[in-house]
UniProtKB/TrEMBL annotation:
Domain HTH luxR-type: 145-210
Stored InterPro entries: CheY-like_superfamily, NreC/VraR/RcsB-like_REC, Sig_transdc_resp-reg_C-effctor, Sig_transdc_resp-reg_receiver, Tscrpt_reg_LuxR_C, WalR-like
Stretches assigned to the Response regulatory domain: 3-119
The keyword Phosphoprotein is annotated on this UniProt entry: yes
SUPFAM superfamilies: C-terminal effector domain of the bipartite response regulators, CheY-like
Coiled-coil stretches noted in the UniProt entry, renumbered to this chain: none
PROSITE patterns in the record: HTH_LUXR_1 (PS00622), HTH_LUXR_2 (PS50043), RESPONSE_REGULATORY (PS50110)
Protein name according to UniProt: Response regulator transcription factor
Keywords: DNA-binding, Phosphoprotein
Modified residue annotations for 4-aspartylphosphate: 54
UniProt lineage: Bacteria, Bacillati, Actinomycetota, Actinomycetes, Micrococcales
Presence of the UniProt keyword DNA-binding in the record: yes
């Protein structure tokens, strides 16, 4: 029997997941959480085999919750289930330790397959996400910014790339599932490490290096 914890703040979606799992003898929902704090508390208390995690929660990011869960309870696996198929969101989830990424709206059989695959120790992605993720990593490997800005962390490089695409702080925060404050800190760090006079100067340098070219 695989035990599941559902984490989502949309009652209708939770109803749909429960209905999809109903009658499956090998899957059992043992708890539900509507925010990060409850998700962390229930994971530590119940030790579910798999957590089905939304990324947008009222009190924080599902990616951050995933990172904490995988650190606190290494045996618990996380399957992200979200509306967003944005490249940055997928990568953020994977870096947080999620074992799968399922886009809401997929079929019941696809969801069951995803849950069972992650429970068995595998990794799984919705087909569209798998295609985009492969393209994203292929592009990242050849991205000149990785060679030209070695002083930046991967996360800072992601922020710089989005700055070069014209994203403001709020849009960057949404794309990477970070708080506005965390984005401000990353932007400040990027400017300092690049020795940039201001945000516009950093953007110009990034674009000359080839960042921000996907939009």
């Amino acid at each position: 029997m695989t035990s599941l914890l559902l984490v989502d703040d949309h009652p209708l979606f939770l109803d749909g997941v429960r209905a999809a799992l109903a009658g499956e003898q090998d899957l059992q929902v043992i708890g539900e959480a509507h925010d990060v704090a409850t998700a962390l508390a229930l994971t530590e208390e119940l030790l579910p085999d798999v957590v089905l995690m939304d990324l947008n929660l009222p009190d924080g990011s599902g990616a951050d919750a995933t990172r904490e869960i995988t650190a606190l309870c290494p045996a618990t696996k996380v399957l992200v289930i979200t509306m967003s198929a944005d490249d940055a969101a997928v990568v953020a989830a994977m870096r947080s330790g999620a074992r799968g990424y399922f886009v809401k709206g997929g079929g019941r059989e696809d969801l069951l397959h995803a849950v069972r695959t992650v429970a068995a120790g595998g990794a799984v992605f919705s087909p569209a996400v798998a295609d985009r993720l492969g393209a994203w990593f292929s592009g990242l490997a050849a991205q000149p910014g990785r060679e030209l800005f070695p002083q930046l962390t991967d996360r800072e490089r992601e922020v710089l790339d989005l700055l070069a695409r014209g994203y403001d702080n709020r849009r960057i925060a949404k794309a990477l599932f970070l708080s506005d404050k965390t984005v401000r800190n990353h932007v400040s760090s990027v400017l300092t490490k690049l020795g940039a006079a201001d945000r516009a100067d950093a953007v110009q340098r990034a674009r000359r290096a080839g960042l921000g070219a996907n939009d």
